[in-house]
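Protocol step 6 of 9: fold each sequence in the batch and record its structure tokens directly after the sequence line. For illustration, a two-sequence batch is reproduced in full.

Sequence one:
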Amino acid sequence: MNQYVISSLIAFVLVGMGLTAFILGVINYRSTGRTLVGAFMWNVCWCVFFWNFGYAWMSLCYDSDVAYFARAIALLAVTVYMMYIIRYVAEITDYSRRKEQIFLLGFTIASLIAWTQIIQKKAVTFVTTPWGYWYRSDMSWARMVQFASILAALCQYYVILRYGWKKATKERERYVLKKYCLFGPILFTGYILDTLVPSIFHTAAIPGSCISAFISAMVLFQISTNHKMFGLTKEHVSEYVFRDVRVPVLIADSEGKIVMCNDITYENLGVTHQELEENGLDILFDGRQDDIVSIKNKEMVCNLEQTDVKDEFGDLMYSIYFLHDITQERKNLREAKASQRMAENANKAKSDFLANMSHEIRTPINAVLGMDELIIRECEDEKILGYAGNIKDAGTLLLSLINDILDFSKIENGKMDIVPATYDTPSLIHDLYVMSYDRARKKNLDLEFEIDSNIPAEMYGDDVRLRQIIMNLLTNAIKYTREGQVSFALSLKGKHDGMVKLRVSVKDTGIGIRQEDIDKMFSAFQRVDEDINRNIEGTGLGLSITMSLLKLMNTELKLESIYGEGSEFYFDLEQKIINEAPIGDMSEIIRSSEMTRKKYKESFHAPEAKILVVDDNEMNLQIVKALLKQTGIQITTALSGQASIELVKTNTYDVIFMDYMMPEMDGIETVKRIRKLSHNESANATIIALTANAIHGAREMFLGNGFDDFMSKPVKGEKLEEILIQYLPKELVMKSDSSNDVEIDATVLENHEKPKKSLKQFLQTTLKINMQDGLKYCMEDQDLYEEIVGLYASNNEVEALNTLYSEKNWKEYTVKIHAVKSNSKNIGANDLFELALALEMAAREENVEYIDNNHDSFMKEYQTLIDEIGDVIR
């Protein structure tokens, strides 16, 4: 191989290195978003290009004049190269710009002086060498200045790196700075070959500096590319996202073949790249439902998200699949659903409990208040009437407590509804005064009503709940006021667009409330000053219920109070105006409403009217008959649903009262059968549900199953007469004249043989019955009590219960044992009551083991008591 070929190859390599550096510099500059640091790197790269190009041209020309010019270009590139190296490293380490400029100025001056001397023709001698046309030089002072400036530049380079090392806070930053330290030794090694070596040994220069310049520049380029020292780029971000994102990412081509995926795909899903390429996504999935997939051989569920990438013509290029692990989320969701089901079951159990307790509690209250009403109507003795009044007050309080608990349950379940209707404003005010006056009078409190005379006479809203809200406030004010007065004010705040804004206020001179206790006032079951107020009756739910009801009416309760002086509760309420006529002066109406005990007077007579009352509890039937006897209504009773069906086939009734919870056939099933009868003499009768089940949804349930109306127990005489006036044919009803008593031939209680006197002695001595408890349910009426005991013995359910037990008919067994339980409680057979209660609960839960172990012993006790009573009364 001749000399020219070798020199050509060397020149070709040098130019190739220069071009490579130049191209990479351009790419780097564009990929870094044309940043300043990217520009410095580009300048370094084109300096390498001219450095290498100059020496390559020089090695090929074999002409001293041309070689001189080519070498001058290369040496100028060397000087600029070092300047940009300094600027580059200063920029990435955030070095002091002022210090950098001072050093560059000194380096530039020294380099230019050295350059002007070195490029002189007498400084070097060009010679032909095996590797081309190169130079040989002596160690002149210019060469020494050049060498010193390059060495000073390298020292400055390391000073700047040292600054960056001290400033670095992350291990990654220090790791990168260590790599930058390679630049100096690489450049200096090559630089010696064509500076010191020719000068010291008087030999031809070797092109080491341009090679080392290329290598050192590539070191900087590689570090900057791998460690992202030049800012963010789309390519860098994409690489990081694809590599480091913590979800499996798979990329498929337009044919559906997997061509790429990140490392976590293999780690998490347990597959290899080859398996994915050969089988596609199907190898991963054990099952798929929409976007949810199960991973094979793993207890893992993922959400599959697909993104299609299309070209500018709309053709699919590839699809990207993201697999998001939702195993824990699905587990949490299942647990949440299980918890929700448990909560719903618990809520249903609570509702069922409230329904049952409503029935259980209201049934004896019905008896107590019903009998008490009869005493008030028929008794002339003022002392006894006083006792009866106290019983009525206590029973009414007990009912209000039950209603509070039921209302609170409705609010908790979100089932409390506001039902607006047209109402008469004076009637509302009159009712509030009537209901609160007696309470205030008993505590010697002044009750003041201040009513704005311009309030509209008729409005549209839920007057039932409005009465409840205001009565809660009035009742609380009276309860917590020992002396002074309670004031109720209803004022007009304004009118607009057919609406009226009212201010409702209740003020008292009671004990007041401390500021720190105000929040407790509106919490359920909370009371303030328990030591002072411990004897005041109530559940502590009144204000909480009031707050919730007002929220449903889009308003809120406000409170102002001074401890020891009194309180004022007030709220603003908007109602729709129906009749804009003002109510006028209400003072006369209020004065005429002052409560005095009045003798009962039936509100109507209807001797031609016929009603049917269906209830499996005969005591309830007697109460209804007694409450209505002065109206003259013809009353027929039935103890079962089947008996009522037979009666309507041959008798015409105007109204039918139907109990819900009865054995064999409950009230709903009975009504459905009555409605379907082909021959029904009472097809036009109004059927009213009569039940102690007063929880939320009861009315809707009954109306949706064929009933025409709903009436909850305990039955009140006034409510009973009111509903009969509403549904009896108008031509059969004669309204009573309050000034004249009308003599009527009333239906009396059904005749039962009067128990012998020895029954009283038996009841006083037997341990199976607590006569005092039984008398309480009969208002201490001995004759009525003995009659009910006789009915208890004659209504023997032993055979029916045994039949239901043998048939395993737990639904009817529950109903029947429930009736026996209630009747046992009514006569004071407390032990039997407890046994029956336990069997009823077991039957509801179908706890067959408990029933099997206790049914026979209960039947024996029950039969023995019936036999003992029967022996006495026969």
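Sequence two, same batch, same settings:
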Amino acid sequence: MKHVLFLLLLSVIVSCSRPVENGVKIYDLKTDKKVNPEGINPASPCFMWKINSAKRDIVQTGYVLQIAKSEKSLKNKEELIYDSGIINTDQSNFVYAQNAKFEPNLTYYWRVNVITNQGESGWSKIQKFGTSFPEKYQWNGKWIGEDSLSNQGESINGNTRLAARYLRKTFNAKRGIKKATLNISGLGSYIPFVNGERVGDDVFAPLPTLYTTSIYYNSYDVTSLIKTSQNVLGVVLGNGRFLAMRSNMVSFGLPRMIAELVIVYKDGSKEEIISDETWKITSKGPIIANNEFDGEDYNANLEIKDWNKFKFDDSSWKNVDLMNAPGGELIAQSAPNIKVMDTIKPVSIKKTPKGSYMVDMGQNMVGWLKVNLDGKKDKNVSLKFAETLINDSTLYLANFRSARSEDNYIPSKDGAFTWEPSFVYHGFRFVEISGVENEPKAENLLGVVVYDQMDNSGKITTSNQLMNKLFENSFWGIRGNYRGMPTDCPQRDERLGWLGDRATGAYGEAYVFDNELMYKKWLKDIEDSQSPDGCISDVSPRYWTLYSGNVTWPSAYFYVADMLNKQYGDKEGIIKHYDSMKKWVNYTKDNFMNDNIIVKDTYGDWCMPPESQELIHSQDPARKTPAEVLSTTVYYDILRKMADFAHISGNDDDIVYYMDLANQVKEAYNKKFFNKEKGCYGNNTVTGNILSLRLGLVPEGEEGKVFDNIINVTENDFAGHVSTGVLGIQHLMRGLTENGRGDLAYKLVNNETYPSWGYMINNGATTIWELWNGNTADPAMNSGNHVMLLGDLIIWYFEKIVGIANSPESVGFKQILMNPYFPEGLASAKGSYESLYGTIVSDWKIDDNKLNWNISIPGNSSAVVMIPSRFNVDVDAIPNVKSSDKEDGYTKVVLGSGDYNIVSL
């Protein structure tokens, strides 16, 4: 009978009949993590999808994947370039079309039919993807630009000032276009046009890199924009990160671009329009300056009407200069570009005593202000940006340091104008508008929020309004610090990819945003910025080159790779960068290890709360964790991760080396720093003890004494407040909760006096401050929008409050662990997370000690659910329980996919 059923199912699948009446659905189909993308590497596109069913416990058992060059061929199963046949597997992510051959600059169409334990899905909706050039492609296009300064006041030294470049090229096209693909890289940033129409909606493209090592290009399908016969390709070049904003940064020269427009005709012929000596250029356009620190200056009198249309007379323009190649390899960009992701309106506009207008957006945001204002011809209109005010009427600019953060617009006529910048962004809540003829109206001002294109993957709301506000502030802070890399801040003269800001924080961010592709890109930045001997720059890309020989900042390299694997099931970061990571491990051992102790540290437990709120850094030795404690604990953790990485990357012979070295480090560390009598490390700081405890260095049986010291110092020496900086805070919330003091973690998150997150909020913060005392410290370092002090807070929200976590042996949430802490005093919490397999929901309420808990588990995954015995839940009333056990005050149940309601008797 089983054989008959299998043959019947097989015949249904092969015949591609209508979906059977079983409710199995396929959704969220992606190629290389993107929906219908362009620019996919033709060597190895990967496919993924999600499945769902109204029935519980749905599991994929197989799939059929088909790919063709046209929708018609795919529907008719004709001229398929790939047909997998039935692949018996539950894998629905990182699926590859083995041995399929894809040509460059073409569009392919694909669909999948999923087989499950509840029947088949039927064919999915047809998806598509466009290919880029193959790897190591030798471009026919040349690097072009203007290799001189042509405008008064321009400078490429110090606070650089340079006008945008405008480039154009006319060409003819034949009839019968099958596809036209624009492959382009403009450094630092570019905006492309075809026949006057803007191509795409990317901002600051391409993503920033160390341009001497790697350069990204983007691919756009411009088929619909190409006309038979006369066409023009236009590009505006901004400075971006290619021309350094300041003399203390690495600069790569004047802006330049390379492009190849590939037209494939229906008759099989091809034509290329390339960047070469035949292009024309001018820097006499309206964008007379653009610098990400200082702002953009725009003179409307210099607007060039129809410059990007075919009939424009460009005889007064210069021939382009051939520019030197920057040196980096041209690579198809796999991570999405920055885009406009949100907009907000002002909450108030007030006239200042000096006659300007102060605009309050109500939110510290990152992007720019789009305006519709009334101006007077040739009278400059100024937009000055700041995060905070002095006395409600003056911008506080001291914490911007040398960043001018001002946009200027010169009208070409009296009356209304609409404008927004093209190549700069600001971190701000307040905007001072000067030079206008009439009071601005809120409906004519728009805050434009920009960051890397990605989905918001996780949300949390609770019955505690302070917790909700803190989560909201975190949301704004995280997305405000994505600029093709995770940055430290968005407002002052820095805005760099500091590694130390993102070590553990990356795990929490991945719950809130689907940031996988951006962080994969950043791993390459880190390797590109590594020194030949193995030292990792504390900033990557290394626009500041800081080879400090530090351990705690480079740890982000390893933690981010681990996060990508655990959160997304993506092992590529580990495999691709394993050799580089190993090089750093050995470099650090050879240069900074003495008797198995790492003796070098650079930054300490950065930004721990100082004893005086006017200080940036504490001067009290008793508060400072010894450097060797910080560096050695983190190095030990990296060694253990490297043992896992060695296995994942197929370097199993290295495992023994890492584990032996880790054991030697642990033994030496405890011998030197562990006070067995007192049960503490070093000078008994919370940071030293929590790192030792959570990273596994405490001798067996001594964990309780060490934890008692963490509690004693926190409750007695710091009155139940945070005492840690950027390193200790990475483990504090989880460390407290996992060791039985979740109540203290809950207190820390609800504190409203200094130092605390609540103190920031009560003092007007709408993001996260750089310092616990950001409102009183020296303005040399008091950014109002940093996320490093979040530490493990967001992880704690998801894993300990709502209970959405990976099971210990799972990656990508194939199996979920639902084990909320249920803090006393919190009546409800609801969270959701969009995992690789679908939406996970945990929504609990407690009333009179009775639990009502709704959970959703996506298809093709399962969950381990821990139910505290005190809630007196009848497990037998839960449907479709796969297994159930009693465990230390909990009932542990395993559930398949579906929706469940768990309630107290």
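Proceed to step 7 once all outputs are recorded. Observation for sequence two: The radius of gyration is 29 Å.
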